[in-house]
């Protein structure tokens, strides 16, 4: 739900960022800030800074940054609302309740009823596995070399179902028939009436990120069909927006997640210590699941069966991940079929080595297709080169495409200029676009040596330097308040942060650090908070001898760039001419400004 900025600020003020982070990171005071080893990337020298004055953290190594909310979201892999509630509970603050209509109230009550049925069913299956009736299921799981601790961690159970015993149990607990049916643990037909959906199956409870049981998967004992049976979709279970094992994998500190095919792959990997493993839920991997992973990590390693079906699934899913903005690599399990078999045969150290050496997704697809062409035949080699060129068209970022183009040309001994022309030709014709991809314009291939404008990069740096300077020194804002405005910052996040920052400074100009914390706090997405925090933690690489002149130069640069943008807009819109004239006069006044720093 939405919470007003004032509510978020109240919760942040009641929780000191140093107190929140120190249980997770060993911090040591240095000057006005605290420093420690960053928990979000590997490092030997502390570059992780926590500012009690601004109530934000920032890593100068990997760029992670934000406030206490951001830290919990990133470290605990939880949502903004979940992190806010944790901090509110910690401070004894009661968050405002959402105004609900009667329809919303009934829908929420129904969801809670279904979750209660799922929870009770999971407990029943769990006890059944450990009873004489669950002997077949227990033998199967022990045969797969699962420990009691692992079975308990995943809540594994068994469905006997011979006499619809679960349905009878739920009825005894007072749950109505229509809700038992809707929860998906029972089925109905005219002959048997309401009866258990799962029987003679090892049961895998499926939990959401909060650890609530939302559905089940069942593996049949013996030769029954289907081998795996999953709960139907319900108001609490959307297969396309959940991942098996995510409730445990979300806590992994690894910078990647491993995507597997099935329940047993995930369980076997967690037992071996690879707690970053998750799996899709008996359906094809979806864009919704890719979006979940993107919120957790920037890289996913695919661990699929090494057969032809596994290869096809890997290629399909890595393209979904790429479109979601997630880097992807592919695990080579050969000569073994799946992760469970590999770990049992070669051990977890060898498996970790395969993870470290996982193949780049682009080159995995190229390699798997190379066998379809005879490289000694000029015609087929030409077709292979065309295949590579079309695949290169899928990269939308110019620099990324350029890097892959150069690497592919070197790896497959293709002249780079020839491959670049092929890519440009296919690109203009719309080749290389996945059928499922959105219709988006393709970028041009960068010319050799092409790079980002140095002037643009320097200008963005000046904007961050200015905001950091204002946040660090209370004497700055009163002197420059008439010469800088939120509209002078062109980026969406920078402009919004500056607008809130300046608003809070007007209320309390003596505490700019608190204003900076409030500016970061208006953002709910982790990436936005990270970018906002960087605005207030950017410093000159070397302290200038004349600090007043350096600050004046930075302020003038930011303001001049703003006026230049306004002039360009006025060329298209004459109505802006009056505003432009006023802006130019303000530049003259800025030239006469004398800044005094302690």
Number of continuous helical runs: 26
Q: Structural class of the helices, strands and pairings?
A: alpha+beta
- Uncertain regions spanning at least 5 consecutive residues: 434-451
CATH class of the largest domain: Mainly Alpha
Q: In the residues, how many domains can be counted?
A: 4
Amino- and carboxy-terminal Cα gap: 45 Å
- Biggest β-sheet: strands ordered side by side in the sheet: 1-2-3-4-5
What's the Cα radius of gyration?
Answer: 29 Å
**What summary fits the major beta sheet?**
5 strands, antiparallel
Instruction: Give the strand content.
Output: 5-15%
Please provide a written account of the structure.
With 598 residues, this protein is α+β, with helices and mostly antiparallel strands. The chain folds into 4 domains: 5-91, Alpha-Beta Complex (DNA Primase, Chain A), CATH 3.90.580; 102-236, Alpha-Beta Complex (DNA primase DNAg catalytic core, N-terminal domain); 241-366, Dna Topoisomerase Vi A Subunit, Chain: A, domain 2 (3-Layer(aba) Sandwich); 454-591, DNAb Helicase, Chain A, CATH 1.10.860. 50% of the residues lie in helices and 11% in strands. The protein contains 26 helices and 16 strands. A 5-stranded antiparallel sheet has the order 1-2-3-4-5. Strands 13-12-14-15-16 form a 5-stranded mixed sheet. A 4-stranded antiparallel sheet has the order 6-9-10-11, with helices on both faces. α16 (361-370) runs antiparallel to α17. The longest helix has 28 residues, at 102-129. The radius of gyration is 29 Å and the shape is globular.
């Amino acid at each position: 739900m939405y919470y007003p900025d004032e509510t978020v600020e109240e919760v942040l003020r009641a929780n000191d960022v140093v107190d929140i982070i120190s249980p997770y990171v060993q911090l040591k005071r240095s000057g006005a800030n605290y420093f420690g080893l960053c928990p979000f990337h590997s490092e030997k020298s502390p570059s992780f800074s926590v500012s009690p004055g601004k109530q934000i953290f920032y890593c100068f190594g990997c760029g992670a940054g934000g406030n206490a909310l951001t830290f919990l979201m990133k470290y605990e892999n939880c949502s903004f609302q979940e992190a806010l509630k944790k901090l509110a509970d910690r401070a004894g603050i009661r968050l405002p309740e959402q105004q609900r209509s009667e329809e919303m109230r009934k829908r929420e009550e129904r969801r809670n009823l279904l979750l209660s049925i799922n929870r009770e069913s999971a407990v029943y299956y769990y006890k059944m596995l450990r009873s004489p009736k669950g002997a077949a299921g227990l033998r199967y799981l022990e045969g797969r070399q699962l420990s009691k601790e692992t079975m308990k961690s995943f809540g594994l159970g068994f469905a006997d179902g011979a006499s619809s015993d679960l349905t009878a149990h739920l009825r005894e607990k007072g749950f109505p028939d229509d809700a038992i049916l809707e929860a998906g643990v029972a089925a109905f037909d005219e002959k048997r009436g309401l009866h258990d959906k799962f029987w003679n199956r090892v049961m895998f409870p499926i939990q959401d990120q909060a650890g609530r049981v939302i559905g089940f998967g069942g593996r049949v004992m013996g030769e029954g069909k289907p081998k795996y049976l999953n709960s139907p979709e319900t108001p609490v279970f959307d297969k396309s927006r959940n991942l098996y094992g995510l409730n445990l994998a979300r806590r992994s500190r690894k910078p990647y997640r491993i995507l597997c095919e099935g329940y047993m792959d995930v369980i076997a990997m967690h037992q071996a210590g690879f707690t970053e493993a998750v799996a899709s839920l008996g359906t094809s991997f979806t864009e919704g699941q890719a979006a979940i992973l993107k919120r957790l990590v920037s890289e996913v390693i695919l661990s699929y069966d090494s057969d032809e079906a596994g290869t096809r699934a890997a290629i399909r899913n890595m393209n979904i991940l790429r479109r979601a903005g997630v880097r992807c690599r592919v695990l080579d399990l050969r000569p073994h079929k799946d992760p469970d078999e590999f770990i049992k045969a070669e051990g977890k150290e060898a498996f970790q080595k395969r993870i470290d050496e996982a193949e780049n997704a682009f080159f995995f697809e190229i390699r798997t297709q190379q066998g379809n062409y005879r490289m000694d035949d000029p015609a087929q080699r030409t077709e292979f080169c065309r295949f590579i060129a079309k695949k290169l068209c899928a990269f939308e970022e110019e620099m990324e495409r350029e890097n892959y183009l150069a690497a592919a040309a070197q790896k497959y001994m293709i002249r780079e200029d020839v491959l670049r022309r092929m890519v440009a030709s296919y690109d203009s014709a719309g080749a290389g676009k996945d059928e499922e991809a959105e219709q988006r314009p393709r970028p041009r291939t960068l010319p050799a040596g092409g790079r980002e404008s140095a002037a643009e990069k320097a200008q963005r740096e000046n904007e961050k330097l200015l905001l950091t300077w204002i946040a660090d020194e209370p004497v700055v804002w009163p002197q420059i308040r008439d010469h800088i405005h939120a509209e002078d910052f062109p980026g969406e996040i920078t402009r919004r942060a500056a607008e809130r920052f300046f608003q809070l400074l007007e209320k309390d100009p003596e505490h700019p650090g608190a204003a900076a914390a409030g500016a970061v706090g208006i953002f709910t997405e982790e990436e936005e908070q990270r970018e906002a925090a960087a605005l207030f933690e950017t410093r000159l690489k070397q302290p200038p001898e004349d600090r007043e002149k350096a600050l004046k130069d930075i302020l003038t640069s930011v303001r001049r760039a703003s006026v230049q943008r306004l002039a360009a807009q006025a060329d298209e819109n004459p109505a802006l001419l009056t505003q432009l004239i006023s802006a130019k006069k303000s530049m003259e006044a800025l030239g006469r400004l004398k800044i005094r720093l302690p």
